[in-house]
Design a protein that fits this description.
Elements lengths: L4 E7 L2 E7 L5 H8 L18 E4 L2 E4 L12 E3 L12 H8 L9 H14 L5 H7 L11 H14 L1
Parallel strand pairs: 1-5
Antiparallel strand pairs: 1-2, 3-4, 3-5
Length: 157
């Protein structure tokens, strides 16, 4: 274990301390070590948004973040959006508006939409599309996803 370092961080409100390889990606630590498997790997190059999380309140692609950069940080994954068994209003809107097709992009879309709604609680369609621009969906034309985000924004008013 001489080639590992201690990493302490908070994920979805819970503190974690663990030994990680100095060059480990945050995505791998979240999925493999901490078992937050809602965060997916798509391209591994920061182009698809599937691995999106909130790190210290900012939307990031966890496949591009060295785990050591999260030292002492606070992370929100898709698992942290719900309140126990109760879905967030955004998650509920994705369900009711059929914003999730195969579901692979959904965690990243939800985190990008969460980030957008925190910055702009009343986005128009163009703002939603811009806020989700770093997230790719191969199943839809994004219409239902945009509708879901706008529905959640309206319901939050």
């Amino acid at each position: 274990m001489a080639d590992q370092i201690m990493l302490s961080l908070k994920v979805n409100g819970q503190s974690h301390s663990l030994q990680v390889h100095p060059f480990a990606r945050l995505l791998d630590v979240l999925r493999e070590d901490l078992r937050f498997t809602g965060t997916k790997e798509g391209c591994g190059e920061g182009e698809c948004g599937v691995c999106s999380i909130l790190l210290n309140g900012r939307l990031v692609n966890s496949c591009l973040v060295p785990a050591v950069q999260a030292q002492g940080g606070e992370i929100v994954t898709v698992e942290g959006l719900a309140d126990g068994q109760r879905l967030s209003s955004l998650q509920d809107a994705f369900l009711t508006q059929n914003g999730a097709q195969c579901g692979f992009c959904t965690p990243g879309m939800l985190l990008a939409a969460t980030d957008l709604l925190q910055r702009n609680p009343h986005p128009d369609e163009a703002a939603v599309r811009e806020g989700l621009a770093g997230n790719l969906c191969r199943c839809t034309g994004y219409v239902k996803i945009v509708d879901a985000v706008q529905t959640a924004a309206r319901e939050a008013r």
